[in-house]
Amino acid sequence: EIVLTQSPATLSLSPGERATLSCRASQSVKSFLAWHQQKPGQAPRLLISDASNRATGIPARFSGSGSGTDFTLTISSLEPEDFAVYYCQQRGKWPFTFGPGTKVDI
Amino acid sequence: QVQLQESGPGLVKASETLSLTCTVSGGSISTSYCSWIRQPPGKGLEWIADSYYSGDTNYNPSLRGRATISIDTTKNQFSLTLNSVTAPDTAVYYCASGLSWGTLGHWGQGTLVTVSS
Description:
The complex is a heterodimer.
Chain A: E1 4-7, E2 10-12, E3 19-25, E4 33-38, E5 45-49, E6 53-54, E7 62-67, E8 70-75, E9 85-90, E10 97-98, E11 102-105
Parallel strand pairs in A: 2-11
Antiparallel strand pairs in A: 1-3, 3-8, 4-5, 4-9, 5-6, 7-8, 9-10, 9-11
Chain B: E1 3-7, E2 11-13, E3 18-25, E4 33-39, E5 46-52, E6 57-59, E7 67-72, E8 77-82, E9 91-98, E10 106-107, E11 111-116
Parallel strand pairs in B: 2-11
Antiparallel strand pairs in B: 1-3, 3-8, 4-5, 4-9, 5-6, 7-8, 9-10, 9-11
């Protein structure tokens, strides 16, 4: 199966700062990579699909880039509600898999 | 707006069968790719299975054939059964759906299932 590695495991930042999260796949997933946000006690929420497409209702401060094996989620200016865990997820090859997550905290 | 809601027992005895149902509202299940995903307490996400109403299904090999996903278009629901459960199957189980294989545009709130000995 395709293994997704996320870095860093934890990102400690302040509101207003820029966050850059990385996801690396063990083999190419083309552009079939998504990013989900999960807050404590809540279900994940889709942010970005197919590497760079923002989901409906997702603010423009969230952007995704990359293809093949290396992907990035950028939050241009952190809002208080953005402190959460972020998971990357590939659908390039079954079984679809998730990364271990990056926690963005204050 | 599409909404998903999981239902089923919160406690299952070891060696028995876990059964969950996901009810979809605000959209037709016949245009959706349906998935089950789980998250053990304090851990990451694991894809269990997905399916399309045509009958195409995929199962995670890690479950060694214990999972079955099914879709009932008449009720706009899809279900998961997982047999021979053990303690490691304790998790929050999420149903999710999307417009193509592997897309998770909509998630249920999740339901905690605990396997007891």
